[in-house]
Amino acid sequence: MASLAGVLISVIGFGATLINLAKTSSAAKRAELAATKTQKSIRLFDTVADASKAVSMLEEAKRLNRAKEWKVLLDRLSDIKKILVAINIENSLLNDLQTRKIQSSVTQLATMEHVLEKAISESVDPDDPLQIARTISKQIEKVYAVLIELKQERTH
Amino acid sequence: MSYQKLADLALKLSDKTNKGQIEWEETAQKGTYQTEINENSVQISEVEAEDFSNSNYEKEYEVSIFNSSGNKVESFRWEDIHQLLPGDVHGYILLQEMYQTARRMALGTEQVLDSILGALDDDKIPF
Q1: Residue A79: which CATH number?
Q2: By CB atoms within 10 Å of each CB, which of A3, A46, A56, A80 scores lowest?
Q3: Cβ A106–B39 below 8 Å, yes or no?
Q4: Mutate to test the interface with B, among A80, A98, A107, A128 (most CBs of B within 10 A)
Q5: Is A52 part of a structural domain of the chain?
Q6: What angle do CA A102, A103, A104 make, to 5 degrees?
């Protein structure tokens, strides 16, 4: 009789342990989800801030191109490129199309850097400053489009 | 340098370009057009044939590959891939045609021509 009671107590105790484990596991999962959501939210905030900064700097690059400030423009393009590379590499929030848009801008900026480096080294103006202006404008459109989409995502 | 992957890349790029499955765009470098493939970029440029080149052509076409940081990691011209292409494909013609199609796509030539041809077909020319 005593051994039967012992077995019953063990079974009940084991059941209670399982229930507690399930509760703990569920709470841990909820905490993990909340942490992931917060991390994603912070990353999204940072990405929006970086993309906004890149758009402002691209606007400045247009002005520098107009003012024929080639050396400053070269530095600025390099800075913008670094921001965009960081957005693309450190970010899992972007979808394929957004990644391609940012990637396109990175390579376009690298090409502009090459054009400017060549002109500066030869102490001449770049061949086609108008084409540089058009290219910068297109990069503004691309990065701005990504920025708007990310902002919309943030408000959801 | 001969490298089979580059020949394969040229063939696939040409095929996708002809089918309109790749979108090319202008760059700040005159005569250079760019497209994105995954996290990398490819450019095709028309360049003057270099003096030391064995090429008999005045103009050459160069394909450049860029990584996600915008660094050029590879480039090739027709001589680099010609021997590795199928017998009926000429490396120079392959790259030249791809360049011309990429240029037309980037400049929107097709849309302009379609618009003009459409207007001509409709007899709506205002003169």
Answers
A1: 1.20.120.660
A2: A3
A3: no
A4: A107
A5: yes
A6: 90
Look up residue B33 and give its DSSP letter: E
Residue among B28, B36, B72 minimizing CB distance to A115: B28
Mutate to test the interface with A, among B25, B36, B62 (most CBs of A within 10 A): B36
pLDDT of residue B3: 85
Residue A85 lies in a domain: yes
Domain that holds residue A101: 39-155
Residue A105 lies in a domain: yes
Mean pLDDT computed over every residue of chain A: 91
Here the ipTM equals 0.81
The answer to whether residue A134 is domain-embedded is yes
Residues of chain A with confidence (pLDDT) below 70: 1-2, 156
Question: Is B68's CB within 8 Å of A85's CB?
Answer: yes
Contact A88 B68 (CB under 8 A): yes
pLDDT tens for each residue of A114-127: 999 999 999 999 99
Minimum distance, in Å, between the CA of residue A56 and any CA atom of chain B: 20
User: For residue B20, what are its two tokens?
Assistant: 């309109």
List of residues 6+ apart from B26 with CB closer than 8 A: A131, A134, A135, B33, B34, B106, B107
What is the pTM for the complete model shown?
0.81
- Residue A111 and residue B34: Cβ atoms within 8 Å? yes
Counting the structural domains of chain A, the total is 1
Give Cβ neighbours of residue A92 (< 8 Å, ≥ 6 apart): none
